[in-house]
Design brief:
Elements lengths: L3 H16 L1 E3 L10 H7 L1 E4 L18 E5 L2 E6 L8 E7 L2 E7 L2 H17 L8 H21 L5 H15 L4 H11 L8 H12 L15 H17 L10 H9 L6 H20 L31 H10 L7 H10 L4 H6 L2 H5 L4 E4 L10 E4 L2 H7 L14 H14 L8 H14 L2 H8 L3 H8 L5 H7 L16 H5 L1
Parallel strand pairs: 2-3
Antiparallel strand pairs: 1-6, 3-4, 4-5, 5-6, 7-8
Length: about 500
């Protein structure tokens, strides 16, 4: 920690300085010029061991200069103003003067001072109080080492203290420590695999519908989140959540470089959700910094791409092809393409929702993606295609969502129509906006925002093309058309 000679030197200096009266900045001799002092002074060197301390009874002349090598100091005699012998020298660039009752003590102190200055020792620069403080500080540091095993020098301790005080302003360091400790949470080590399963299990009730009400989370979405998190945990087996670094996250996201930017962003969003939950469970410190840009969780900019949608002839081919084994697809395709309902909303809808409000399909809040009720006007073409189902009850689509997509794919391929992602709903929004030139009206019908309608569907079709879309009627169906209202008939 510190050499024993340093302790001894500081202790010896502290003992000596405690006996002395410290006088800084005073003049040892009034009315005496430096030239006169040098002329009248006697020179003493400490190099010879034979030099004896002069008797106070001798005829001594002051000031006396005491030298050792290149170091020197002076001894000033007693005067009426200062009834003490004084030793004056420069230590660390500062003038230092100490007083002694006898000449012998002053001479001994002068000899010691010049030797310390010549040897380069800094202990001579300390006052008695400073020396005492240094010894006390060393004792505290020694106690810290014995209790914690940490070695800290006086300089390191004081430097860190000064930096902290400067940052804290009016607050004390003790207040800052108490405040920090009161908010400090002890992080628990938890295996990533166990933590992810705990997270998935906690979210299961949110994906279950109760008392006929819609679940808070989509079961499909909950299943995807569970799948992605299990992939993540298998990527780092044997790791605890608190061991995660930004490099781990970068490695995981980079593993899916061949997927689309949207798919990677979905996984990033899932990881952020899991990390926030882990902080709440004390599996991660709140200061983890995993969300910084270098951590790989910053979302990529996704190219919206072109909005693809079906054309009127394709709609007719699919609706007319929905016979036989595809008969149950017909109302789903009609509601999707001619009313703009989302497939998920149709999966939840009943025939009561279709017929309850004359001239409209009602999407109640618990079945709407936006969880807000809306009414969608029924155009003449939709009324015609739904007419054969007037007496139906129960779910519009009685099977699973996967069964619908599988059946729709087989139907589409049977009539040789290419796949267009979400093409029927995109077609409704495109043609409805082209027919009415009113993004607010289209947004209200589709359950979307005007900004999204304007951004994704403006200018994709002409009004003439829109009229063809909403005029797709069953073959020879003019006599089967049910005109719901004037507006629907003109649509």
């Amino acid at each position: 920690m510190f050499p024993c000679s340093w302790f001894a030197s500081v202790a010896q200096l502290a003992e000596q300085l405690t006996l002395n009266q410290l006088v800084l900045g005073s003049s040892p001799s009034r009315g005496t010029s430096i030239t006169e002092e040098n002329r009248a002074s006697g020179d003493y060197r400490t190099d010879s061991a034979q030099n004896q301390v002069e008797s106070e009874r001798g005829n001594l002349r002051f000031p006396k200069t005491v030298r050792h090598r290149k170091a020197e100091c002076r001894i000033y005699g007693k005067s009426k103003a200062y009834p003490f012998y004084r030793v004056c020298g420069y230590v660390a660039g500062k003038r230092r003067m100490t007083s002694y009752p006898s000449y012998s003590e002053a001479k001994a102190a002068a000899d010691k001072l010049v030797r310390e200055i010549a040897s380069g020792s800094q202990t001579a620069a300390l006052t008695s109080r400073q020396a005492a403080d240094a010894l006390a500080a060393l004792e505290r540091l020694q106690g810290l080492y014995q209790s914690t095993g940490r070695r800290v020098s006086i300089l390191a301790g004081i430097a860190e203290y000064c930096e902290a005080v400067a940052k804290l302003g009016e607050h004390t360091l003790g207040e800052a420590v108490e405040s920090y400790l009161s908010s400090l949470v002890k992080v628990k080590r938890q295996d990533i695999g166990k933590a992810t399963e705990e997270f998935i299990e906690a979210r299961k009730p949110l994906a279950e519908s109760k008392d006929g009400r819609r679940s808070q989370l989509s079961p499909v979405y909950a299943a995807n989140v569970a799948m992605w998190l299990r992939e993540f945990s298998k990527t780092f087996p044997g790791h605890a959540v608190c061991d995660l670094t930004k490099q781990h996250l970068q490695s995981y996201v980079g593993h899916y470089s061949k997927l689309s930017a949207k798919s990677r962003n979905d996984r990033r969003a899932t990881l952020k959700m899991f990390i926030r939950w882990a902080v709440e469970q004390d599996y991660l410190p709140a200061t983890h910094r995993l969300f910084e840009a270098s951590g790989g969780l910053k979302p990529e900019k996704v190219d919206a791409g072109e909005t693809d949608f079906y054309r009127p002839a394709e709609l007719r081919a699919m609706l007319e092809g929905a016979t036989g084994e595809f008969r149950d697809l017909l109302p789903v395709l009609a509601l999707n393409g001619l009313a703009g309902l989302r497939v998920e909303e149709i999966m939840r809808a009943t025939w009561a929702d279709v017929w309850r409000v004359p001239g409209h399909v009602e999407i109640v809040a618990r079945k709407s993606k936006t969880r807000a009720r809306r009414l969608v006007e029924v155009c003449s073409a939709l009324a015609a295609w739904l007419a054969p189902f007037k007496e139906f009850s129960g779910q519009v689509w009685k099977l699973s969502s996967d069964s619908f997509h599988e059946s729709f794919t087989r139907l589409r391929e049977s009539v040789e129509i290419p796949a267009r992602r979400n093409g029927l709903r995109h077609a409704f929004c495109t043609y409805h906006f082209a027919a009415h030139a009113n993004e607010n009206l289209t947004a209200a019908q589709a359950g979307n925002s005007p900004a999204m309608i304007h951004q994704h569907y403006k200018g994709l079709a002409t009004k003439a093309e829109a009229e063809k879309w909403f005029a797709v009627l069953p073959m020879g169906g003019a006599k089967n058309i049910i005109h719901v209202n004037a507006r629907a008939a003109s649509a």
